[in-house]
Structures are given as structure tokens and as C-alpha cells.
Write a structure and sequence with these properties.
single chain; 317 residues; alpha/beta; TIM Barrel; 8-stranded mixed sheet; two-stranded antiparallel ribbon; 10 strands; 14% strand
Length: 317
Amino acid sequence: MCAAVYVLSTVTGYVLTSALLLKCPNLLHRKKQETFCSRHISHRGGAGENLENTMAAFKHAVDVGTDMLELDCHLTKDEEVVVSHDASLQRASGINAHISNMCYTELPPYLRKLGVTFRRECFCEGGEDKRIPLLRDVFDAFPNTPVNIDIKVNNDMLIKKVSELVVKYDREHLTVWGNASNKIVKKCYKENPRIPVMFSLPRVLQLLGLFYTGLLPFVPLKEQFLEIPMPSIITKVKDPNRLTRSQRIITWLADTLLMRKALFEHLTARGIQVYIWVLNDEEDFQRAFDLGATGVMTDFPSRLKDFLDRNGIPKPL
């Protein structure tokens, strides 16, 4: 009987303490310093309105009023850091070659028309700008705009070169970097711990485990950005009639576990920004902000800007 009372009191105390710290994490953790805060993030510069990852796309997004540019980086044969999503040039340029095997001056232009990855049967036709830009071009053109950098490959030299560019352009306070790979994120943090990092996929899974066991309020976190998909948008990417029963169940389960307002509120209270990607419809914008997301990543910067203005959602301070 005494053992049962002891166990019950211990569990009750743990649950109550966890619940309190989940709501008030600053009782245990100092809030991370936020050098910038983003509501409006342009995915690949806005791949639905201009050719992805081009200077034209970035300029348009900044002109619209985006808070952050999201882009992807690779390293060429002559060790230039270029802005491109794919390692292969096949999809975007129609050339059967890899960026890492070509010098920068040899890189072909983008095709005239590219598919929008997160929008089913949607294509974007570009204007005159079809050039694959250098990362330093972006830094030169937009010195005050935060940039979200996805390090696409596990390459020590790429990580080193990106860090050097960030430092050279005095952008450690305006940059977040990382990848879904935990190995890449660890290397980024080791190379330059002054540049904030995002959660890798394994760390997202670990985060969920901590959240659902009540341990999250007690655990320190080095990451400053949680960037996650909204699983329910799979029907915007794939034909819903072609989804199998198991795919529907997995999507529902992932969405239920991941899209948690209590989790997002806890993280933002600790100074960790929550970005949800890649959302291109108003109902998804609304759901993300209702859940407490700090920001939304979109292929359509103009559409998100109109939504924010019409709903009176202010720019972050």
C-alpha cells in the first residue's frame, strides 16, 4: 500500500511539474535571443511566381515584403557555393550532369518552365533570368534580409565555404542553416555555433518523443528553429484518389502527432521559432497560424502577403 501511494504521488508530481513547465518554460530555461522573427518565408524565393532559386525570384519576394528567403546550396567543381535545390541538373536544366562535377561558368541555365514541387500539376514559367546564382550574389543584393540555408549535401567544404560567406558578409545574426540530416546539422553547428541551426529529422522525432512523454520541459535544446511540413498537404501534392489506405492512415497520424499547438507554444516561449512548409493555400495559412506557428513557408509570396494583410497579421518585431 505504501509503495502504491509513493508511486502515485511521484507520478502525480511529475505530471504536474511537467505541465507547469510546459506552460511556463522560462522557469527553467532562459529564452533564446531572437535576432529576427519571420512570418512570411519565400520557399526557393517563391517557386510558384518565378523560377525557383533565381535572383529574379528573390528580388520579387523581397519587393512583396517577405521576411525571409529560403534557399538551397551546393558546391561546384571549382568550389563556388551556388544556389540550387538539386544536386543533378536534369530536372531544372535538362542536362544529365551534377553540379559538383562542373565549374560555375559551365553551369547551364534553368529551363523556361519548371514544375512547382508542392503544388500538383502546377508550373512556373520564368522571364529572362534563368541563371543559377552564387550565394554571395544573394548576400550582396539583400544585405538586411534573413536567409534560411538548406545545406543539401554532406560536404565539409560546402559547410566551411557557406560559413565563411556568412561571416564575411556579417550575417550570423540573419542566417539559419541546416538540413534534415543530423550529420549535416552537427557539422554546421561545429563549424560555426554562432549561426543558428534548425532541427534535423531525427531531432524532430526525438522532440516529439520528449513532448509526449512529458520530458520536453526539462531538456535543453541547442536548435533555434523548428521547420516542419504540414502532413495534410499531401493531397495538394499528390492526387488524393491515388493515395492508398496505409498512406492516408500514416498522413493522418503524422498530422495529428506533429501539428500540436501546445508544442508550438512551448517552443516559441523558449525563443525557438516554428516554421511550417510548404503551404500554398489560404486554409493552410490559417491553420498554421491558428496552431501558433511563428511563420509560414510558401511558393506564392504574393498570395501569403495578401492573406497576412487581409487578416491583420502584423509583421514580426
